[in-house]
Amino acid sequence: MPFGIRAPSRLAFALLLLAGVAASEYASADGADLFAPSREAGQTMDAARALPASPFYDVSPDGAAAGTLVRAEAFSGYALPPGVTSIRVLYHTRTADERDAIASAVVLLPYGEPPKDGWPLIAWSHGTSGVARACAPSLMKSLFYNWEGLYEYVSLGYAVVATDYVGLGTAGRHAYLDMESNGTDVVFSVPAARAAVPQLGRKWIAVGHSQGGLSVLGVAQIEGRIRDPNFLGTVSLSGASDLEDAIDSATAVNQPILNGLMAFIVFGVKTLYSEFDPREILTEDALAIYNTGVEKGCSAASGAFTSVPAARMFKPGWKGNPYVKRLLERDRPGARPIYGPVFLVGGGSDVMFTESAGTRVFQRLCASGAMVRRSVYPGLGHDAVVYGSLKDQVAWIASRFAGDPAPSDCAVPTTSS
User: Fold this and answer.
1) Which pLDDT tens digit goes with each residue over 307-362?
2) Which helix (H) or strand (E) holds 235?
3) What are the DSSP calls for 239-296, one per residue?
4) Closest residue by Cα to residue 205 from 346, 373, 401, 372
5) Domain range annotation of the chain
6) What is d(CA 381, CA 359) in angstroms, rounded to the nearest whole number?
7) How is domain 61-236+388-402 classified at the CATH fold level?
C-alpha cells in the first residue's frame, strides 16, 4: 500500500492495512507510499508526486455499455523505464448498484514490436492510494507503484492496463475496499484498453496487491458469472484475507498510523450505502477530522488521523452497525464461485493479511472447486512479498499464457467406491 501502502522511512514502524506490512519494513523510493506522520507531512508527499489536474478526466456518464472507450491520449509525463510508452484512457464501468460511471486507467506498452497475437495483457489493480479524486495513480508521476510490482511486468514484455477505480481521477465516490466494485473497474478496463491500443492480445490475467489483491479476487468472482474464455487467471498479492480479519488486525495493533485507512473504510461504507451515517460509529474527535479531511489529499488525509489515539477512533460496538456488517459480508473472498486458476501470495510476517486468514480463504476457494496455488513467504511483510515473490509470479503468469495446466495445492477429494 499501499492497500498497497508503505510507511515513510522516518517512522519507526511500517504497519499497513489492506496495507499491513511487518514492523521491520520501511519505505523506499521504489514503491507505493501513503503513510504520513501528520497532515502537513502528507501534503508535502502528495505535492512531490502529483501531476497537474487535467480536463482529460472531466466526462459525465451517458449510459454507454460498460467497457466502452470514451477517449484516449498518449502521455509522456510519467517516470517510466526507458522504452516504455503510456496511454491514458477513460471508459465506462458500473457501480455496485449498476449505474453507469466513468473510470480512468493507464495502458503501458513494452519497447519493441508486439508478438504475432498481440501483447499479452496484465490488468493491474493497485493498493490503497486514498479516496480523493487526486489520489488516482494515473495522476502521479510514478503511477504510485513504479517498481513495486508494476514496471517489472512491462519490462518483461507484458502490456499492462492499470485502472484508477471510479472516484479516483474521475468524478464520483470511490468504493474503497469493495472487491466487486473495484473488480468491475478492472474487468471493464480490458475492452477499453483494447479499443485504445489495437496491439493488445486477447488473453489477459488480473494481478493486484493489497486493496488490489482483494479486488482481483473480486475479478475472479465476477468472471464466475461472465466466464470470459480469454481470462487466464488471477494473481492476488497480500490480498487473500477477509476485510473483517484485516480490520480486527488493525484494531489489535492499536497504532494511530492506521487510522487513515480505517477512515477510508468508513468512506467506502458510505459509498455503498448512502443512508449510512458515519456519526453512528466514529467518535467526535474522529468525526471532526473525517468531515474536514478524508478527501483533502492522499497521504495528507492519512496523516490527518494520526492525531486521534487509535483506541478512540470508533465508538464501542461499531462493527455491529448494520451497514458495516453488510460490507464485511459482501467482501468475503471465496464465498462465491470463481472462474480461472488463482495464485495466492502472502507474506509470513504480514500483520494485516495474515497467514491464518489467508488459509481460510484458500480453504474456501478449494471447497468451491477452484484451482489454487498458494505460496507464503516466511519473514516477508506486506510490501516486501511483492518483490520476494516476483520470480514465482512471473513463472505462473508465463505458464498461463503458454496454455500449461494450472497447478493447484487444493487437496483432491476422495470418492468411495
Assistant:
1) 999 889 999 999 999 999 999 999 999 899 999 999 999 999 998 788 888 998 99
2) strand 231-237
3) --S-HHHHHHHHHHHT-GGGHHHHHHHHHHHHHH-TT--GGGTB-HHHHHHHHHHTTS
4) 401
5) 61-236+388-402
6) 16
7) Rossmann fold (3.40.50)
